Amino acid sequence: MIVVNNKTAIEKCIISFSHNKYSARKEADALSLSKAEREIATGKNGISHLILRADDDDIDRLKFLFLIRGVPIMCYALGNLLNSSLREIVVVGSEEVKKVMDRFLDIVGTCGKTVQFVLEDAQHLNLVNTMNLGRELLSPARDELVLFQPGDLPFLYDLEKVLHWPDNKKYNMVLWLNSRQQMFPEFEKNPASEFVKRNYHYRTLSDHEDGLLDLKEPNLYPINFAMMDSDIIDQLHSSRKDGQIIHAGIQTALQKPLRLLKVFPYFIEHLLTFQPKVNRLRSGDQYQFGMSRKIFHKGASHLLNTPMTTTVHDDPAFVSDIDALEDWEDFESLTHYAEKIHGPEGLEIIHPFGKSLTRFREEGMPELQTEIPMYRDFPSYLNSIYETLKMGHVPFDKDKQYTSPNAGLKEVELAYHWYKQKCELLKQNTAPENLQRA
């Protein structure tokens, strides 16, 4: 096994505002509807009417361009990076993404960061190509991790624990796993406390093996590109959704038969020990893939031929990506709630870059509304998507005011209080050189 001695601090990041496209809008909508209907029929916790791109769209339905309280999702995500200790950022996206980015940086500044843009390759919208486009601009050293992050995590602003995690030094890939029990410890007693609704297809044992954790795939990846096979990264990422990672593992193993021999003992140990422990802790539990983290670390490290690890966090912002209309509505309701209580300053109460985001909404969005078709009448555009995907309601009324029936849910209030407290703690603990510069 490779001996690893990486730099602990991560200073470079690739953020992707790119996404694959379906050949036709009819195909994309059919996929979105069928997924949601399956989830409804089986009583899933998280219902997702997916936001998908299609080649024949008049307006590119790129989720990163969607507005949350009048500000593009991508600006929240980019603001999180600007407000961190990162030094270099590469943005991958479309021509419209570049227009928004340029206008955003003109107004709020770069906070001392080097920010570069690379245009997505419309013919190759897969993860490996996106990563490689960014990697070429960053030129990472052989002893450093680069943070790869999709740009649909608008409130993931507590990044320092990832960028300076002590074990970055020992591993070439780190998966920050989303654990339902860690993020929402009271969800069984108080279901509303789980203010981010997701489906958890994976299981693992707690550190002392006295509890069972429900897991969802990670959304950010610290990676040492020099020590990883890019095709394996793409396979693991593209198959990670809906419990399909076992298929990715099988395909990877078949491509690397010599590594499979090294993994085999861990697989046998898993077969002999995991299910009995699950039955003891939660008899009859239904899941799509489960494994002891200790065994997974050893097996995956041999399969990937490089040391990798996982860590389980307690931050709901890490799981709260925007893949679906329901996810967008969660954040639109949250930001409206904050402004209802605090007025125009509401956004900065729940987001540490909120003051700059509000400034951009006032100074930058009027111009972008004339340049980007999606923004000319965003309420009507979104209402039409809701109607097509049979959501049962539309989010905006005839006066283009946000009036979703979900805006008054208890989960919205709980999310507001959680983010408000989180934001206050970060502002208290952030060093002066890392404070936002409007």
Distance between the termini: 46 Å
C-alpha Rg, in Å? 21 Å
Helix-strand makeup class = alpha/beta
The rough form would be described as globular
Helices and strands, with pairings:
Elements: E1 12-17, E2 21-22, H1 25-41, E3 53-54, E4 67-68, E5 71-72, H2 73-82, E6 88-93, H3 95-108, E7 114-119, H4 127-138, E8 146-150, H5 160-163, E9 173-179, H6 180-183, E10 202-205, E11 212-216, E12 221-223, H7 230-238, H8 245-255, H9 257-281, E13 289-290, H10 293-304, E14 308-313, H11 325-342, H12 346-350, H13 354-363, H14 365-371, H15 373-376, H16 378-388, H17 410-429
Short précis:
With 438 residues, the protein is an alpha/beta fold. The protein has helices spanning 25-41, 73-82, 95-108, 127-138, 160-163, 180-183, 230-238, 245-255, 257-281, 293-304, 325-342, 346-350, 354-363, 365-371, 373-376, 378-388, 410-429, and strands at 12-17, 21-22, 53-54, 67-68, 71-72, 88-93, 114-119, 146-150, 173-179, 202-205, 212-216, 221-223, 289-290, 308-313.
Entry keywords:
438 residues, alpha/beta, five-stranded mixed sheet, 17 helices, disordered C terminus
Kindly describe this structure.
With 438 residues, this protein is an alpha/beta fold. It is 44% helix and 13% strand. Helix 1 (25-41) links the parallel strand 2 and strand 3 (53-54). The longest helix has 25 residues, at 257-281.
